[in-house]
Amino acid sequence: MKGLSSDNRKIEFLIYVLVWTFVFSVPYFSERSSGQINWNEVTKNWMHVFGYLVIFLINVYVLVPKLLLKKRYLHYFVSVSVLVILVITVNLIVPSGKAPLPGSPSGDSNGMMPPVHEARMQKPPIMAFADNLIICILLVGAGTAIKLMSKWLSEEKLRKDGEKEQLKTNLALLKHQVSPHFFMNTLNNIHTLIELDSEKAQDAVERLSTLMRYLLYDSAQSTIELKKEIEFIYSFISLMQLRHSDEVDVAVLIPDQIPDIKIPPMLFISLLENAFKHGVNYPMKSYIYFEIQIHEKTLNCIIKNSKHKPVANQYDEYSGIGLENIKKSLNLLYKHDYKLDISEKENEFEINLTIPV
Questions:
Q1: What are the φ and ψ backbone dihedral angles of 282, each rounded to 5 degrees?
Q2: 260 lies in the same domain as 310
Q3: Residue 103's domain spans which residues?
Q4: Which pTM was predicted?
Q5: Are 96 and 125 in contact (CB under 8 A)?
């Protein structure tokens, strides 16, 4: 069936083989329990079971994929009905009923059953038809349910694989959105430094070169060592301090011992960009605070910046490309397994991000 994976088809086929092997073994073991195997009776029962097997296989491998799944419901119902009637007719023609063993009380010396007892054991045609019809309906229903379930599992797997690929694509797009934004801001910083201090501008170009190598190579990975990410953050903060000089008090608090863990690259840089963008206001004294706390199973990043506009809503100002991208990235990477708290005080704006590690 189209859309059904190879593994699912193999599992489905194996289930069919095991179930029908058990069904075909029932007549044999049933006769064996009586002490003597009547192969004629076993063969008759096998012929009945074979008719049910025909219904099951044709329904599963022909009618369901060719008619039911293509929404040709009327054709499917008619085809199943004709198939069921044909098999029931054949089963009614083939005699059933357990013959007595030679020498049993209900048979004569030749092992033949008297007509009166034989008539008593035969079911009326309507009852025999009803029994066969119920069995056929159950088989058709079971086969259809298994096939639909197998198809649903295959489509669910394809859907999840598609979601994973989409997540990768979305994350790549988000990174490309962040990189030009950061690059543009840094070039503006260097442009300003060229007019103020050429030596600092040269140092800034070297730092920018280091940052660009990170953006081009390290950020292309799905995860990166926390140590490299912290080095990138130090370089970024140093570059921003070259522009803002002593007007901005920058505090960085990072543990001396960095564990060997990995995180998505460029996870904090957008928040830092916004902190410098909205937290610095000349000639007023400004500050930026950046802290990373590493716990057993979580990593906590705290970013604070001074707030100079008590009337305006600082959150609205932060809801630009940087913060929106970080929220999208977190949703794609961690779904609901993260915590992002944004608080705004009279003179301070704070972001507290917690992610699993």
A1: -80, 150
A2: yes
A3: 6-160
A4: 0.51
A5: no
